[in-house]
Amino acid sequence: MNIKFCARVFFLFAMISASVTLPAQNRDVMSAYERNMQPLIEKVANAGTDNERYNANELLVQLFDEALNVEESFQWKWDLGTYISVLTSSDRQFRVITWPVVRDNGEYECFGFVQSYNSKTETYDVYTLHDKSDEIISANEVLLEPENWLGAVYQELVETKHEGKLYYTLVGWSGINALTQRKVIEPVCFRGNSSKPQFGQALFRREKNLRRVVLDYSSRAMVNVRYDEQVVRTYENKKIKKKGRTINMQVPKEEKMKMILFDEIAPMLPGMEGMPQYYAPTGIEMAYIFNNGRWELRDNAQGRLADPKLNKEFEPLPKTEPAYKSDL
C-alpha cells in the first residue's frame, strides 16, 4: 500500500479524534475569539455608515487571521450565525470562510479565508482572500488565486468523485452593486502537494476556455443555483419493429441524477444584451451533471417530480384574440 496514502489516512483519523479532544486551553482561546467576533459581525452587517462597517470589518479580519493560526483551530466548529459562511470539505482538506460588506452606494465587497492542509508540514495553512472583482476581465475564463479572487459568499460546497479522486466545486453569490447581483459555479483545487487554492478549473466538457460559470443578473430577479437530485427525462436510442421493418427511435425514460441545477438567464427585452442589470430567468432550467471527471451541460434539464403520476406534459393555453383593441 502507498506509504503517503497510509500517512494521509492516519492524519485524517488523528484529526477526527482531535475534533473531540481539542485541548481545553485551545477551546478557551477559540471560544474567546468567537465571542469577540460576534459584536463585530453585527456592526459589519448593520452599522449605519461605510466607516463604521469597514472599521468593524478590519478588526474582524484581524481576529480571524489570528484565530485560524491557533494550533488545531481547524477542529473548531464555528457558530457565527448566518452572515458568515463556513464550509468544510468532507475529507478535511480545506475550509473556506466568506462574508460580504455592503457600501452606502449598494456596492458589495467580499472577504474571506481558506484554511487548507499542507501535506509537507502536516498542518493547516491560512490564506486571506482579496476581492479583485472590479479588476478581473473575462471572469469566466481565468485561473485565480487568493490574492486575485472573484469575491463571493460561498453557499454550497459540492463534492464529486472520479477514479478515486475528490473534486470540489463552490456555489456562491455576490451582490456586486445596487442594480446587479451574481451567482457563480466555481471549481477549486490544490495542485500537487501545495496547500494554496486555485479558483476556476477547466472541468467543463466541450467548453474549452470555461473555468467557472458566472451568472450576472438584475438585483430584482431571483436566480436559483443548487446541487440536487432530480428525476429527469432522458432519451435512449432503441431499435423497434414497426410494420415489418426495424427502425431507430428515441425512447424516453425517467432517471435519477445529481446535478447542479440553475436558471437560464437572458435580457428582459431585445437590445439589452450585455447589460446584466436587465437580465432575468427565462423559465428554462439548465444543469451541469458530473460525468467522467467533467461537468457536462444538460440543456433544458427541467427537474421532474419523483411521483410519475404528477409529471404530466405541459399543455399551453390556446391563443385567443386580445380583449382590447388599439387604434395605433
- Assembly of the depicted chains: single chain
Helices, by number, come to 3
Distance between the termini: 81 Å
Strand content: 35-45%
Shape summary: globular
What is the helix content? 10-25%
Low-confidence spans: 1-20, 312-317, 319-328
What does the radius of gyration come to?
Answer: 24 Å
SSE order and pairing:
Layout: H1 3-20, H2 24-46, H3 50-68, E1 85-88, E2 94-102, E3 108-118, E4 123-130, E5 153-162, E6 165-174, E7 180-190, E8 197-199, E9 213-218, E10 225-242, E11 245-267, E12 279-291, E13 294-298
Antiparallel strand pairs: 1-2, 2-3, 3-4, 5-6, 6-7, 7-8, 7-9, 10-11, 11-12, 12-13
Helix pairs in contact: 2-3
Describe this structure in words.
The protein has 328 residues and is an alpha+beta fold. It folds into 2 domains: 1-83, no CATH class; 113-309, no CATH class. 18% of the residues lie in helices and 40% in strands. It has 3 helices and 13 strands. It has helices spanning 3-20, 24-46, 50-68, and strands at 85-88, 94-102, 108-118, 123-130, 153-162, 165-174, 180-190, 197-199, 213-218, 225-242, 245-267, 279-291, 294-298. Strands 5, 6, 7, 8 and 9 form a 5-stranded antiparallel β-sheet that branches. It has a 4-stranded antiparallel β-sheet with strand order 1-2-3-4, covered by helices on one side. Strands 10-11-12-13 form a 4-stranded antiparallel β-sheet, with no helix packed on it. Helix 2 (24-46) packs antiparallel against helix 3. The protein starts with a helix and ends in a 30-residue tail after the last strand. Mean pLDDT is 86; it is low at 1-20, 312-317 and 319-328.
